[in-house]
Design a protein that fits this description.
- The complex is a heterodimer of chains A (314) and B (235).
- Chain A is an all-alpha fold and 314 residues long.
- Chain A has helices at 3-16, 23-46, 55-73, 77-99, 104-124, 126-129, 146-169, 172-181, 183-188, 193-219, 224-227, 231-243, 249-268, 273-287, 292-300, 306-313; strands at residues 135-136, 221-222.
- In chain B, β4 (55-60) and β5 form a beta hairpin.
- Chain B starts with a strand and ends with a helix.
- The chains are: A mainly alpha (314), B alpha/beta (235).
- The interface between A and B is medium-sized, with 21 and 30 residues.
Chain lengths: 314, 235
């Protein structure tokens, strides 16, 4: 099997999908791509050894930046998505100087707290943000055309995948891996640990901001409750864990599998589908701790390329 | 080339290094000996900027590097072989070596050259080039760690207890290699508990006790010192 050919076919299928399906299927895939990108961005940060719980926070402020720019300043919705990313990146850059001094659970808890702080600030700036009831935009992006919305998120997702692959292939990979492995060694190999952490933190936060902005424009609505929902943190993490962390393929596979399963379960068992969904996640984490991607890959790996296989994971 | 003047280092309120001064000249191998908790590792961390000095200064080639960040100190030409956990176990031997030079602009230009000279010192690394670092034996991993540090083209190589966890014959092997490295225009700072083996490598040594220098002399005189014989060599 030629890996490249399969990738090209899958890409082509993803691009032409709107010609063969209706709004319902597209809406499922739009949602899957939203979570897929979040999941990848979370994994990219994890590759440096930092467990971030701030995904929902940067998603939320990106969403608000974009929605408010459109509602109050009349900015073009497409430009507002870029603005959402920029805004999250700037906030991440400023906060990075403080939070990136923290490690392990302290970093995780602080980023989680930040999410809450963002939502409290926005709730209380009711003059600008609409407070607890949120802000409603006059129009969804592309006037709600599902095809165009689908292609927009597909484009964003491709870019996120591209960035993730860049992280795996360029010089930055060594830096990221070595920081995760051992900071002392990284430093004494001449790696400016803080600089790389800040870079990754800003890039992943920008991605989360862009996705948040897209989400806000898709539904033409933001409110503190739903925009800063922990769903935008927990689902991406679950997807990365199920698919396999430290890879690009893992979160993609995890997002597709969990996204499709959750939709199917919703139809099958309207009440209680989340319980089954939860059980599936628990089972995968228990029995395939490396994630589906690596477990399947190992199954097919012949003996002589075991070495390169493990390398790919590092 | 390296001069430490009146260095004090504390962890919170506990002072570990007291008013310590030492000197390393060009092409000299200097030992720092002492029991557990005497401050050897802390001294090295202070040189590398991994802990900050309370007072005193570290001068490298006439420039104070006391407040430098670690990665910049490495770029200046000081390489550290940290105690344990010194490798990237899921990367191949060659990748580990390349990583040692990847982020040092000067060394990056000479990656292939440096690889060859390190393979000459440690032929086993050439043989195992493609193997994952984590799957090698303890002794080989330690050699790889030294090789990785050498990839940055250091003028000063600092080793923090390289003998730890190695069987005696491997320690002898490793220290023989250090003697070869010494010949390549590299100064060596060796922190060791294994005084007997360490004395075979160094030109001059300091004995650290409770964060202060108890003795300082050349290798020969240190090995004849009665206190050292009793305390560290078991004679």
């Amino acid at each position: 099997m030629n890996k490249k050919a399969i990738l090209i076919i899958l890409t082509a299928l993803a691009v032409v999908l709107p010609f063969f399906t209706g709004a319902y299927v597209l809406s499922i895939f739009i949602s899957i791509f939203v979570f897929l990108s979040l999941s990848l961005s979370w994994d990219m940060m994890l590759r440096t050894g930092q467990l971030s719980f701030g995904t929902a926070g940067f998603f939320g402020i990106g969403a608000y930046a974009s929605a408010l720019a459109v509602a109050n300043l009349g900015l073009n919705p497409i430009l507002s998505i870029i603005l959402g990313g920029l805004f999250s990146a700037i906030i991440a850059f400023a906060l990075g100087f403080v939070v990136l001094r923290l490690r392990e659970i302290y970093f995780a808890i602080t980023t989680l707290a930040l999410t809450h702080v963002f939502s409290v600030i926005i709730r209380n700036l009711s003059d600008i943000t609409g407070g607890a009831s949120g802000t409603i935009l006059p129009n969804a992006i592309f006037n709600g055309d599902p095809k165009l919305i689908y292609w927009a998120i597909l484009l964003i997702t491709f870019m996120v995948i591209g960035i993730s692959e860049m992280f795996k292939r360029t010089k930055i990979r060594f830096a990221i891996n070595s920081i995760r492995n051992d900071e002392t060694t990284a430093k004494s190999s001449g790696i400016d640990v803080f600089k790389y952490l800040l870079l990754v933190f800003v890039i992943t936060s920008a991605i989360q901001g862009v996705i948040g902005a897209f989400y806000a424009q898709q539904f033409a609505f933001v409110n503190p409750e739903s925009t800063f929902s922990l769903n935008f943190l927990l689902l991406p993490i679950a997807m990365a864990l199920v698919g396999g962390i430290y890879t690009t393929s893992g979160p993609i596979i995890g997002a597709l599998i969990l996204g499709l399963i959750s939709e199917y379960l919703k139809l099958l068992i309207p009440y209680g589908h989340l319980v089954v969904y939860g059980v599936i996640i628990v089972l995968v984490v228990l029995f395939l701790p490396e994630g589906i991607f690596k477990s399947v890959k190992k199954l097919f790996a012949s003996k002589d390329n075991v070495g390169s296989d493990i390398n790919a994971q590092s | 080339m390296l001069e430490i003047n009146n260095l004090d280092v504390s962890y919170d309120k506990i002072q570990v290094i007291w008013d310590l001064s030492l000197k390393i000249s060009n092409n000299e191998a200097v030992g720092i000996f002492g029991p557990n908790g005497s401050g050897k590792s802390t001294l090295i961390k202070a040189i590398m900027g991994l802990v900050s000095a309370g007072s005193g200064e570290v001068i490298y080639n006439g420039e104070s590097i006391t407040d430098f960040e670690t990665h910049n100190i490495t770029k200046k030409g000081i390489a550290l072989v940290p105690q344990r956990r010194e490798l990237f176990p899921l990367m191949s031997v060659k990748e580990n070596l390349r990583l040692g030079a990847a982020y040092i602009p000067k060394a990056r230009k000479r990656i292939e050259e440096n690889l060859q000279s390190i393979y000459q010192i440690f032929p086993i690394l050439k043989e195992r080039e493609k193997q994952l670092a984590g799957t090698m034996s303890g002794g080989q991993q330690r050699m790889l760690a030294v090789g990785r540090a050498l990839m940055s083209n250091p003028k000063l190589l600092i080793l923090d207890e390289p003998s730890i966890g190695l069987q005696p014959s491997l320690v002898t092997d490793l220290f023989k290699k250090l003697n070869e490295i010494k010949k390549q225009d590299v100064s060596v700072l060796l922190a060791e508990q294994n005084v007997r083996q360490g004395l075979k490598v160094i030109d001059r040594g300091y004995v650290l006790e409770n964060g202060k220098i108890a003795f300082a002399d050349n290798a020969e005189k240190l090995s004849n010192n009665e206190h050292i014989q009793k305390t560290y060599l078991g004679l």
